[in-house]
Amino acid sequence: MPGLIPQPLPTDVNMDKDDFRRNKTLGKNLMCRLKCMFTSSSAPESRLSLEDTQQWSQSLERLLGSKYGMATFRTFLKSEFSDENIEFWLTCEDYKKITSSHKMSSKARKIFEQFVEAESPKEINIDYHTREEIKRNVRSPTAECFDEAQKIVFGLMERDSYPRFLRSEMYKTLLESLAADDARG
Fold it and tell me: What span, in angstroms and rounded, lies between the C-alpha atoms of 42 and 34?
C-alpha cells in the first residue's frame, strides 16, 4: 500500500518562511477588517485608538476589558484554531448572570457537554479532579460551579495565548497601522 508509506517533504518548501508570509498576510487582512469595524463609527470616543491598543499589552484583564481587545483576541485565537478557552471563559461569564434555576440547570449541562466533558467538541484543558468536581456540581448547579475551571482556563490564556497574541503579526500590524494613522493626522 504505497499511500500508507510516509513520503519525504519536498526540499524546496521552507515551512518557516511560508508560515511567516501566511501570518503576515493574515495580520494585514485582519487589520484591515478591524480598522473598518472599529474606526468607521462616527463618534471619535468609540473608535479604536493606538493608545487603547497599546494598553492591551499591560495585562490580559485589560485586553479582555476592551470590546475591541476582546474581539481582536478572539479573532486571533480562531485563526490559530485555539478559541475554546476564550469561548469557555465568556460562556461562564454569561452563565453567572443567569438568575432562573431552570435556565441555570439547562445552561450548566450545555456548558459541561460542550467544554468540560472528556472528548467534548471544544474540550478545555483542565485536570481530572476539576473535571470530576464540575460533573458533581452540574447536578445541582450554582453560579459558581465553573469557577475553578474558569480560573484554570484564565491562567492558561494568560501564560500561553496572551503572550503569543502580543508577539503575533496580527497585533504588531494593527499597532503599526494605528501608529501610521496617528502620524498622518
Answer: 15
More confident residue, 105 or 2: 105
- As a whole-number percent, the residues of the chain with pLDDT over 70 amount to 75
The pLDDT tens digits for 148-182 are 999 999 999 999 999 999 999 999 999 999 999 88
- Mean pLDDT is lowest, of 15-29, 103-117, 163-177, for 15-29
Separation of alpha carbons 135 and 117, rounded Å: 8
Residue among 161, 162, 152 nearest 62 (CA): 162
115 Cβ partners below 8 Å, 6+ apart? 84, 87, 88, 91, 122, 123, 124
Interatomic CA distance for residues 162 and 116, integer angstroms: 22
CA distance 111 to 101: 15
Cell matching residue 66? 476592551
Of 138, 90, 89, whose CA–CA distance to 113 is shortest?
Answer: 138
Residue 3, C-alpha cell as written in the block:
499511500
What grid cell was written down for 41?
Answer: 463609527
**Are 169 and 26 contacting, i.e. CB atoms less than 8 angstroms apart?**
yes
